[in-house]
Amino acid sequence: xxxNLSGDLQVASANRLVDGMVVWLDEAxxxxxxxxxxxxxxxxxxxxxxxxxxxxxxxxxVDPFLxxxxxxxxxxxxxxxxxxxxxxxxxxxxxxxxxxxxxx
Amino acid sequence: MRCAMPDTHFYKYDDYDRTLVSERVDQFRDQVxxxxxxxxxxxxFKPLRLHNGLYLQLHAYMLRIAIPYGTLSxxxxxxxxxxxxxxxxxxxxxxxxxxxxxxxxKLEEAPDALAALAEVDMHAMQTSGNCIRNVTAxxxxxxxxxxxxxxxxWAEIVRQWSTLHPEFTFLPRKFKIAITGSPNDRxxxxxxxxxxxxxxxxxxxxxxxxxVGGGLGRTPMIGKTLRAFLPKDELLxxxxxxxxxxxxxxxxxxxxxxxxKILVHEVGVEKMRDEVEAEYAANRDGALRLPPATIxxxxxxxxxxxxxxxxxxxxxxxxxxxxxxxxxxWLKSNVAPHRVPGYAIVTASLKPAGSPPGDASAAQMEGVAxxxxxxxxxxxxxxxxxxxxxxxxxxxDLPRVYRELAVLGFAExxxxxxxxxxxxxxLDYCALANAxxxxxxxxxxxxxxxxxxxxxxxxLKIKISGCINACGxxxxxHIGILGVDKNGVELYQISLGGDVDFxxxxxxxxxxxxxxxxxxxxxxxAIVATYLEARxxxxxxxxxxxxxxxxxxxxxxxxxx
Lengths: 104, 561
Description:
The complex is a heterodimer.
Chain A: E1 10-16, E2 22-25, E3 31-32, H1 44-56, E4 61-71, E5 77-79, H2 82-89
Chain B: H1 15-36, H2 42-50, E1 54-56, E2 61-65, E3 71-73, H3 74-87, E4 91-94, E5 100-105, H4 110-118, E6 136-137, H5 152-162, E7 177-180, E8 194-200, E9 206-212, E10 224-231, H6 235-249, H7 260-267, H8 269-283, H9 292-301, H10 315-323, H11 325-334, E11 335-337, E12 343-348, E13 359-361, H12 362-375, E14 379-382, E15 388-394, H13 398-408, E16 422-423, H14 438-447, H15 451-457, E17 462-465, E18 479-486, E19 489-496, E20 509-510, E21 515-516, H16 520-534, H17 541-548, H18 551-560
């Protein structure tokens, strides 16, 4: 499917104050930990408004900012940059489990 | 200076230390409460949390815990395991500054984690901010056969002097001090803001060579000798004078030019020396000139453990050496001579094939603590190469220690070899990084996993950083790998010939154009192949590189890509 790679599409992200977890602002102005629920701004003015809303809702998060994303025809949103992909998807390798003893 | 009863083999907190740390925890608890209640903005709160070692990274808060001069008791390591399990995801990352980082701390629980740390006389102060950071030291300290004096005595004195030092809490930039007491530098003293090297002069006196202005990062520099020989009891006054000159003249207008290395480079070491000596002349006989009794009281706490006589040559060890090739290799690479006959220093490799370098699970930390209690006087060291050290192991016990480490996955016979890779957390965790480090290290580690091949290649240090801040020390890797971002693509710049050995300290030279992530292993393979073809008998990788230069490596790498 075709992707919108123009960089015009943006979502607002931040880290949650209590635990630092990655969150995005949804259409209702709530912070969600699910990227698929993020509100997408489709032009420059929309992005400005989204960032203003994010800052207005910043009581429970740290330093909101805009993230450039792509969107598939089916509406699936994905960040453009590797940094934001990692923020959205987590570590790119398997971390050690608490009770792991390797090679045991 | 404060002294406690010498009931451990390293400094034990007294009431003053405990009160200071405990009050700091209470203070931070209140600051966190204010932040969560909205009484403090992030702008107001950020410096407060950073002063307590709490960073906000890509996915979560990260707590950087200070391990002064890399020395830990088994009890402390057990508590770190507890904390990682209770307040984090059950693992931690040992860093190139001998600290431990926990990557998934919740802000609301951070004060409880700090309170738990305080129970074992630990904290996270001065692991961030423009202050004097945790003082690092030789990880063989107190056990090394080549040691002139235990550098931790002085590291502890510096720790006490620098902790919450009001004049040096807001320096132009962060300030890192490393100390070695051996001629074979294992503390990388020439690439620190101040490096201190204990040595004995022709009169038989032991004092410090004071080295200033080393560092890695954006502008790597090798430190220069500020004072060739400084009497030990003058150390604090001299350090204070040096920091005062830096505080006065160090640049505050440009973050990238604020480290002392830039000041030394810009004014020259002679001018720097003049300024420091003038300051020192006015201060040398003040309160910072420590009385011998104070120094001796601190030194007594680092008195070596009484090690009962043990066999110098063990039949069990020799038999297993013959029967078990991996054990024989482990003895060669992971076991170092101890100053007491019948004992050895053992390095637990936190670099098993394909693992994130320097990471240990809570269960592994507890297993290491068990081994330390059974075989190493309940003592441990953390190395800047991201491994754990048992400083006092009886030679007879080596087969048992090897077996128990193997259960933990920490018996890889690769210390100093190509898979003993230093790597920063990189873009998987770090808000400053441009590229990933750990997955690159894992791929190289898997590719060179064969121990026989690693030992054939010999000593070869690969160091990987995910950005120019160089937490992975790539500038001083025999092979240095720096991750960069070019138009959204991770590229890796390769440098060769870096070294931290004393007298041969060198910054590596960039080999050529950066390579893509999928070509890094191939590139390292080509570099190693070039070395193997060109090396002479007994020649290490870095020696061959120095002899033949970069050209054969370039031809092999860029001809083959």
